Amino acid sequence: MHEAPIKDQRSIELARKKMETQQNFIHPRDAIMQTMERIYRYRMTTTSGGNLSIRRPNGDIWITPARVDKGNLTRDDIVCVRSDGTVEGRHPPSSEFPFHKAVYEVRPDIEAVVHAHPVALVAFSICRAVPDTHLFHQTFKVCGKTGFAPYAVPGSQLLGDRIAESFKAGCDSVILENHGVVVGAENLALAFQRFEAFEFAAKTIVKGTRLGEVRYLTEKSLHEAQARSVALESAVPPPASCREMELRRQLATFLRRGCRQRLFISTEGSFSARVDEDTFLITPTQEDRELLRIDDFVLIRGDVREKGKKASLAVFSHQAIYRKHPEIQSIVFAHPVNATAFSVTDSFFDSRTIPESYVFLRDVRRAPYGVQYQNDGAISEYVSPASPAAILENDGVVVTGDSILDAFDRLEVLESTAEAVINAKSIGSVSPMPDSVIDELRSAFQLP
Predict the structure, then answer these.
(1) Where is the Class II aldolase/adducin N-terminal domain (predicted)?
(2) Which of 218, 229, 299, 391 is the most exposed place for a label (fewest CB within 10 A)?
(3) pTM (2 decimals)?
(4) Per residue in 312-335, pLDDT tens?
(5) Do domains 26-209 and 228-444 have the same CATH topology?
(6) Domains of the chain by residue range
(7) Among 3.30.250.10, 2.60.40.10, 2.10.25.10, 3.40.225.10, what is the CATH number of 228-444?
(8) pLDDT tens-digit readout, 15-67
């Protein structure tokens, strides 16, 4: 088994501790309300479905209420079940409280539980199957051990017993037969990320099977990503220029938009922008993409990172592309579910669908698994101004542009094109535009 270099392990651990420290100062009412709002906004639950809880060190359990609109929760709606069984709040606790309590009783390490009915995981639950998280290295890592709990009546003690049995066996993400999913973690932020990553894997498998046979990673391949070395010297950067300030603002804005459009998930993807010839800004590692602020982005100048910050694990891939292609001003590594479905199958991604797709994307190349983890710059051979996007086997896509807006626009077009092709396969044979039309487009739009 490969192990990440000590410096990189420390970087990840420091980022994790930062998240845990931030969680320590958020009241359970607010943490639950904000997380449920996000789950509902992402359409991963319904008005009446799903419940979240947090266990405090004194044994109190804060939980979503029964029969209250999940899309319109307020902090005063959240219920506290004290360790002595008394209930405080304007509503009764969720009817699923028994299984939350049962999970906490068998897993002292778990302090937050998420239960909901996201469509892809529900599809697996009604097929009595569990998504294989060997699909991506990050999903495999985030979701932890997966399991399955046989059906029992919602809210019943039997359901609690069956779910608790799976968690007692070491599972962290559990499919409930004909019901949905339950995940647990050390805090609610991590539980949300686990829940989101599990649904992302399930969605990608569902989409991928419509294209062909889904390809999974071996244990060796999974550890290639973890074995990356991203050690960089650090230094205090000079005062930010107006250009750097503006790029920070744009990166934060488009990342937030991308998360809300499901082009990114909170644990996956990186976004960067060139400041000058050998300087760029990039997303930090191990931080929720949607919640990034302008000061969270990491400035990379040459081979030196901004002091006190940890750059994305993809930093050397971004650097290699910028150094080989001076015209490129922004780079996105992302995991939009439809485009990512192409990355986990051998299905050819054909951008010759409608004029917009070809003009924006041109011919999209496919990079073999792991090329983006190598520090030899090989990833820079798969994109260029003339070929601005590539499919990364079992790791989403990479898209480049001459501005942050241009890169983001191309990412949207790539995902829309992928979804259209997948949907078209349910209707009939996909008919790409002929060479004569492509030649006409190249001439009309002066494409390289």
Answers:
(1) 30-206, 249-422
(2) 218
(3) 0.92
(4) 999 999 999 999 999 999 999 999
(5) yes
(6) 26-209, 228-444
(7) 3.40.225.10
(8) 555 555 556 789 999 999 999 999 999 999 999 889 999 999 999 999 999 98
